[in-house]
Amino acid sequence: MPQTSKLSEYLKPENLQKLARMEIIARLVVEGFITGMHKSPHRGFSVEFAEHRQYVPGDEIRHINWKAFARSDRYYIKQYEEETNLRGYILLDCSASMSYQSNGSVSKLFYGKCLAAALSYLMLQQQDSAGLITFDSAVKTYLPPRANPTHLKAILHQIDEAKIGKETSLSNIFHDLAERIKKRGLIIIISDLFDNIKDIMSGLTHFRHKKHEVLIFQVLDPDELTFPFRSWTMFNNLENDGHKLLTEPQRIRAAYLRSLNGFVAELRRGCGQKRIDFEQLNTRVPFDTALAAYLANRMS
Amino acid sequence: MPLNPSILIWMALAGAPVVIHLLNRRRYRVINWGAMQFLEQSVAKSSRRLLIEQLLILMLRTLLIAFIVYAMARPYLPGAMPVMPAARPKRNVVVLLDRSMSMRYDENRVANLAQGKEAVARIIGELQKGDSLNIVLAGGRPQPLLKEPVVDIEQFMDLLREVEPMGDEANMTEAIKEALAQLEKSYNPLREIYIITDRQAFGWQAKTETRWADTVESLERGALKPTLHVLQVGQAEYENAAVTGITPAHSSVGIYQPARFDVRITNFGKERREKVNVRFTTGDSREKTTQVDLASGGNSVSVSFEHQFDTPGSQLVRVSIDPDALPADDEMVASVDVYDAIPVLLIDGTGSSDAQTPGALELALRPRDSENPDFKSLLAVQVCRIDTMPSLSTSKFHLVVMHDVARVPDRQVAELERFVFSGGGLLVMPGRNSDPASFNRYLYRDGDGLLPSKLEQVPALKDPVRALAQAFTHPALAQFRDPKNGDFTLIEVYKYFRYVDPRDGKSRVLAQLGNSDPLFIEKTFGQGRVILSAVPVDKGWTNLQKRSFFLPLMQCTAYYLAGSVQPPRNVLLGSPLSLFLPPESRSRTVQVIDPEENEHEVKVAEKDGRRVATFTDTQKPGTYRMLDGDGKQTFYVVRPPEQESNIKPLNPDEIAWVEKTLGATFAKDWDDLRVRAFSKTRELREFWQLLIIAAILVLLLETLLTGRFAARSQRIEAARA
Predict the structure, then answer these.
(1) B711 in reach of chain A (CB within 8 A)
(2) Rounded average pLDDT over A242-269
(3) CATH number corresponding to B91-237+647-686
(4) Across all residues in chain B, what is the average pLDDT?
(5) What does the DSSP assignment read for B472-491?
(6) Is A5 a residue whose pLDDT tops 60?
(7) Which positions in chain A touch B28 (Cβ < 8 Å)?
(8) How close A246 comes to chain B (CA, Å)?
(9) Do B511 and B488 meet the contact criterion of CB atoms below 8 Å apart?
(10) Within 13 A of B479's CA, how many CA atoms are on the CB side?
């Protein structure tokens, strides 16, 4: 299907970069993804038929199943399962480290923005409520979740406005938000998670303690994952001006990869124990992986 | 020190890996990085290991270069090495063959040089395949037969046959230096110098530490001190007499005038020789002969020959004695310039009030013979006053006489200085008109000017002071050593200029007064000479002009001073020959014909305002001729130093000194030398092969470690994938 394949193309981050409006990006991502699934997400989620029961006075007349009355000459009421309206909080990390961008990739922040846009679009499409929180060392914007489709505009506007900020302080943010978000919901964290692992885990535990579902998208650049540098390089810390490190990368590559992989493994293990969904995303990977992960989380 | 120490300069390359490492560190790229926490952890964990790895790799690379460079420098160890295969070390031989004049000595009908060549051939016969050889000829400027040592030693046999003796001394210090330079050009480890000589003491100059200092230093500096063997050819005792000097009595010789030549004959042998015939010939006369008895032990006898030349120009005078075993020095030739006139400028400052006295000086320079109206004086005198002085050049005047001149204006001072500097003669006789202050200021110039001394006028003396009679050695006054030719004590001086002899080495007192004040004092200025007289020709100052020897005194002085106008015609080996061309000559080149009748062309150059042709290649003794464009021929005679005729060999003391100083051994004869030099071989092993093996091992290790360090990263990446 040519249309499908065209839409799938938009799931590649580098192609989305050319599109100016987040709304279009979000729509393209979600539609492209859904077309690829051959299955509408509208069915089975929002209004689920549960059973018939006998009419009792006081029931609304409009809910009477007239077809069943015709067959059985009794009044039956169509009973629906109550809509469990999902409250999705998308936490988008805008710290300085998210600005890293290798050749041929998009920046981690741009990738995160696209992902946040797509997720919020998807949620609102499904009648769920979606909210957006951007942060660096502190919360920068807080859009509470709403199910109103017009809320999408507000979210996308905030996503557009999000700029690179200062250094990350995930633990404080997580604790802060865990206290602020009263109603339980789905916390979607989009971040590189470059912080102390114990602090991160304590923040995440706090969310879980408050009965939130948590889904983590760790966004990393291919350079960060493979460390391909060879010649002598001066690394300037993006989050701390003046902090520099001159080294011969190929010589410390092994140690670097070991350190990174150790960090990710520990994170993954910690998340597993706390029943937190963890998905690592490379900025070159199309968004369907992320959306699929989200849907999988919703299905569970 | 290795055999090829100059290669060690490249050892600096061993620093290249470190330099490249540091340069790389400076040429880094900059990346703004987010995942700093992992980077810091890895650097913290790996820094020590990285440093060790880096140091290890750098050390291996440095070592690799160092091994290769050191191997190329060819190091060695004395003695045998168990790990290295025992191969005969190759010889690096330089034979130094004396071909000085004394090597022509052939008492037994076999000249010393022929014996020397035979010894060289024997040494060549002892050499083996791979040995390198060069032959340095000592005599004159040391000259290697080939530019550098070669292993194809057979070619020397032909070259050796063509070696001819030189007329010069064998300068052993220089010759050994040249031999050492030749040794440096071959890389064979066993360095040996063989000196084949008649051991003439003169060439060795043993016991003169200063002369040998350079050579000894060169010997010590070498990577491997060479062994020196000296082999004597010829006999221990020599008999030799030689003509050791021909000196004309006057520096300038005129035609139609009796010219005297003093000839010196020296017997260097141990036996007295009697009735030795001495023959004197010139180009235009018959042979004159006399007989002398020669005492032994280096004693000399002087004989005089008188000759009158009929033609002006360059002439040769030849003196020979009965030939002996060394015929080269039994004849001596001298070149003489014969003049038909010597132009003299007399600048007379005497006023017209006393016209008689200046006439006396002019007459003394240009005598007239009233009985013979055809008589022509050799000195052609032109008289002028200082303000009408014509422009001076050595082609116009050979001599300027300044008599009683009051003061010399600036322009004339400069003109006179130029004239004397380029070879002209100047006789200064200040008198009653002269202003001493002006003379001191312009002509003495604190020692930088023409005058040999400052002037200070002495007031009239109460009692006249007389000149001293001395054993005059100066050529201008040598004639008056014999009082019969003129008794200086008869000279009375009533008033004079006192000259303070500055004792600065530039001036020389020729004659003195009784009170020790100088009468005549001389100074050399550039190429020319100046004589200053304390008295003028003035009867109020001296009675000199009344003395019978006044005329010969003035003439001798004038001949002497005029003699420096031309460059020397008789020079020692190696000294340049110069010909002054008259300004009107148009010749751009001068032809030179050497003793072997080879023609050379010399360009004429401007020097000190004169046109000069200079020929420098005078390594062969004998008669040279220079022909200018007008076909005028000038003879030059190039002579070896007279000591070369003294074939006295080194005495045991001197041999011991040479043996000690140079570490040389003197062989009694060929068999002795063969036993010493060729029967046993010095033990010496090179080990560059070991170094190359070490370098290869280091290279392998470096490749292995670099690969290993790189693989560690790859393994982790692979494991992650």
Answers:
(1) no
(2) 87
(3) 3.40.50.410
(4) 85
(5) --STTTGGGGSGGG--GGG-
(6) no
(7) 231-234, 246
(8) 8
(9) yes
(10) 21
Number of A/B CB contacts below 8 angstroms equals 112
Q: B36 and chain A: CB distance < 8 Å anywhere?
A: yes
The DSSP letter of residue B646 is: -
The total number of residues shown for chain A amounts to 300
Of residues B436, B263, B249, B419, the one with CA closest to residue B343: B419
The domain B571-639 having CATH identifier 3.50.50.60: the answer here is no
Contact at 8 Å (CB) between B197 and B673?
Answer: no
Q: How many CA atoms lie within 13 A of B190 on its CB side?
A: 22
Side chain identity at B401, as an amino acid letter? V
Give yes or no for residue B46 having a pLDDT over 80. Answer: no
SS3 content of chain B, % helix, strand, coil (to 5): 35, 30, 35
Residue B304 φ then ψ, to 5°: -115, 140
Q: What is the dihedral of CA B104, B105, B107, B110, to 10 degrees?
A: -30
Contact (CB<8Å) B36/A243 = yes
- Flag if B35 and A245 touch (Cβ within 8 Å): no
How far away is chain B from the Cα of A127, in angstroms, using its nearest Cα? 37
Question: Is the pLDDT score of B12 beyond 60?
Answer: yes
Residue among B423, B385, B399, B393 nearest B344 (CA) = B399
Task: Find the CB nearest B34 among A97, A233, A251.
Answer: A97
| Three state DSSP letters for B531-545 | EEECCCCCCCCECHH
Give how far B48 is from chain A: nearest CA, Å. 11
* Distance from C-alpha of B560 to C-alpha of B382, rounded to nearest angstrom: 18
CATH number, span B241-339 = 2.60.40.10
Q: Report how far residue B668's alpha carbon sits from residue B230's, in angstroms, rounded to the nearest whole number.
A: 9
Q: Strands, DSSP E only, in B100-249?
A: 132-138, 143-144, 190-197, 227-232, 241-248
Q: What's residue B317's pLDDT? A: 92
Dihedral sign computed on CA atoms, order B60, B64, B69, B70: positive
Record: contact A260-B35, CB cut-off 8 A = yes
The fraction of chain A above a pLDDT of 90, given in percent, is 19
DSSP state of B83: S
pTM: 0.56
Q: Out of B28, B31, B34, whose CB is closest to A192?
A: B34
CB B497 within 8 A of CB B536: no
Chain B, nearest residue to A96 by Cα: B34
Residues of chain A contacting residue B36, judged by C-beta atoms under 8 Å apart: 97, 194, 235, 237-240, 243, 245
Residue A185 clears pLDDT 90, i.e. is over it: no
Record the tokens describing residue A267, joined without a space: 């994170």
Angle, helices B172-184 vs B209-221, to 10°: value is: 10
Residues 6+ apart with CB under 8 A from B408: B386, B402, B416, B438, B439, B442, B443
Mean pLDDT of A46-57: 65
Q: Is A37 on the interface with B (CB under 8 A)?
A: no
For B532, other C-beta atoms within 10 Å of its C-beta total 28
> Is the pLDDT at B145 greater than 80, yes or no?
yes
Domain ranges of chain B: 5-75+687-720, 91-237+647-686, 241-339, 342-565, 571-639
Q: Does B41 touch chain A (CB under 8 A)?
A: yes
Of B301, B302, B316, the residue nearest B253 (C-alpha): B316
Residues of A in contact with B54 (CB under 8 A): 251
Q: Which residues make Cβ contacts (< 8 Å) with residue B620, sequence separation at least 6? A: B166, B167, B573, B594, B595, B596, B638
CATH topology of domain B342-565: Rossmann fold (3.40.50)
Say whether B571-639 and B241-339 share the same fold: yes
Q: Show the beta-strand stretches assigned E in chain A.
A: 49-54, 76-80, 87-93, 129-135, 139-146, 186-191, 213-220, 233-237, 244-247, 277-282
Q: To which H or E segment does residue B689 belong? A: helix B688-720
